[in-house]
Amino acid sequence: MKRIKQGDDVVVIAGRDRGRRGKVSSVQGERVIVEGVNMVKKHVKGNPAAGDPGGIQERELSIHISNVALFNPATRKGGRVGFRSSDSGNKQRYFRADGAAVD
Known about the structure:
With 103 residues, the protein is mainly β. It has no helices and ten strands.
């Protein structure tokens, strides 16, 4: 089980976008793509056969997973995540600051 999953609400804690919030759109190993964060401009060559006009496109690049923290709605800031077993024996994520379950 991973500490940060696709669809989680996260806060960027390091880098040029520090403090920005967004939803994780994908997790690729130790890197995550967060919607609206780490935007870059990519110059794309057009392809008339495919109907692609080309030009300058804006897209999101990945961020290392250590530079994001899961957003804790109770404290309104990023929090560390731990794991514990629930009463039914399932593994679950929880915030270490206040012990609240994530899922």
